[in-house]
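Try it yourself: sequence plus magnesium ion, in.
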Amino acid sequence: MAMAARTQQQQQQQQQQQQQRSVVPRVFCRTPRAPRRKRALRRQAASADMSDDVSAMQQPAISLTHLQVTRGQPGSTDAKHVLVDVNLEVGRGEIHALLGPNGCGKSTLLDAVRGKIKPTRGEVHVRVPTDKIAFVPQNPDHNVVMPTAGADVAFALSARGERDEDDGHVMKAVDYALERVRLEGFACAPTGTLSGGQRQRVAVAGTLVADAEVLLLDELTSYLDPEDAEAVLDAVRASCRGPRAAAAIWVTHRLDELLKCDRATYIDDGKVLLSGSGTYVRERILGWQEEVAKSR
Amino acid sequence: MSLASAGGGARGGAPRGAPRGGAPRGGAPRGGAPRGAPCGGALGGARRSSLHVRPHRCSSSSQPAASSQPPPPLSTEPTPMAARVLDGVIGATSTPVGMYVEPGDRPSFVYRLHPITKQVWALALVLVPAFFPQHGSLGEPWGVLPFPRIIAMGSVLLATAVSLPPRLYVPQLRRLLLLSMLAFFAVAFVSDAVSPNVYVPFAPPDGVPLASLGASPSTIASPDGDNAPFCYVMLEAGIVKVTRKSLKLAISAASIALTVLLASNLCLTTTTPEASASALRGVLAPVRRILPWRPARQFVDDVCLGLLLALRFIALVFEEANALALGLATKDVPWRSLGPMRAIGVGAGVLGKLVRNLLGHAEKIAVAMHDRGFRGASTFHAYTPGGAKDLRWGVGDAVALAVLAGAVYLATYARSHALV
Ligand SMILES: Nc1ncnc2c1ncn2[C@@H]1O[C@H](COP(=O)(O)OP(=O)(O)O)[C@@H](O)[C@H]1O
Ligand SMILES: [Mg+2]
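Structure, out:
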């Protein structure tokens, strides 16, 4: 991944250089200067271009507006509004925690973001290409595809037909990703012998390798012990803070993890009850729990 | 085998997932018995029962619930057959056969061979003994032993013993021996009991004894003449009849079964599935290139990917069977009062569920593959975690293949001379 990150950085630098070149064309040195009005227009156009670019980056990677999702046959008795009027924005480089009791619609929300289910009302905007969306499901058994851990981590690269020719870049990427999730030395371990938590970490490593720009991580920590959970969360944060500036939705039940998340949303029964910074949401939920304890 | 230990061994698989570089933490033992996290199947339901009052505790409180099943009631009465079968299934599926085992500090020569060399050898160990001359020796004291087959079986056993630690291959061997014993008894009791209706459609050439054509004679002349008569029929009780010929056939069948199982097990335990698939792809690449028809080329790609996924599926079958058997064992089914027919009915129901679950798994894996960017077998290029060294031809391969060629030559030579 280090390699991939570096090449991407280089690409970005090149793009920036190209942009700068287009802003200050070299022809200026040789040809007589254009009339002042034209120059001003040109400058204006260039700056407009730049601001467009910047605003594209500043636009949230994921935005859900008035999202409503209905499960079951519409009109029938078992039809049920799983999500009701949900508004949510996740910017690039941001890690957004999603909390709520079982069955409140967290996984459904991720499905809507992935485009697996169509909203009955409202809009879903995801401003990255579909193949840059990575998803790790709640049940790690459903994510493991290859017989050996290293090959499973490399799956996204394998699917693109990438292979280690001379440089061994796939191997480096796999080893780096496994190290991030504290599974160093597990490249040759058969996936059939891994525990649930190890499988989940293999799945996370797979998304780290895939240079995803949107990470959707569903209740990973229910299979992980606190130390591994922290390592995985750190790896996801690094992915968000890194040059790729990925946007992540992190579904969790552990309040302590909110301290490491930029923003958080608490959903209950398909509705957003609470939204704000990670620390704020954590304080509020702790307050509720205290109230509940007192009233008992 | 106790239930608790079976449950732990099933998921943890501690000895196998041992880290390559001896990682100090994040290692296999931690992922082992106590965290036996439920994965779908019969025990999966326990996970959902947690409440959301104290989120921290959700995960930690629900997991032991799955693994702390009550121990089976101890009784002095003999265990019914069904319960014993169930125990056997739990035991058998908790030590999965055919999964890659990482080599220790000093990997044996089998690990260093090219996957194709291993596969060719495995095939040859079954096929080549058939080319050695087999007939005309039943009368001799050692005539009942099919030596080429036994040598083949012995060499696989030796290779297995050299390459795998005993704690791994001994339990596997026990189960495989059981299977081959099944083959032995089936063939020994049945193969010569009913005299076959063999009609020789042509007159045998002069000098060829009828015995060598497959009909079972009632007596065979001893090679030493009359002074050492021996018994052709070794055991006869009711419809069961064991003769020297059926004994020889049975030993052959058992050793073939054991050779096939051991050789494929050794191939799978010493090669990562990805290396096997890549090697196959490499061998088929020239074929693929000259194929003029696009579907045919796609077929080659599909075969290689199919092999890979099949090897992933083996582990799933074991896992799912283990989960179902454990689930059934914890249900405390009153086998004794059920009677054999209904017990078989329960077993059939569980088998049906196994197939359904496995198909469900297959579908989920297909969805996951698509989600993770899979766009067809032709663009897919599996990554071999062991690195390029897994697919390098070496001196060992040359030696192994030369030895094999020698054995084949010997077989054809012996055959032609025996026939002359
Ligand atoms: N395929 C489905 N068909 C009908 N209802 C579903 C389906 N999947 C989930 N639901 C319902 O949607 C609700 C939310 O489920 P889910 O998003 O999985 O909750 P969670 O927050 O625990 O992830 C639940 O009440 C569940 O019963
Ligand atoms: Mg969920």
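One thing you can check immediately is this: Chain B is about 55% helix and 0% strand.
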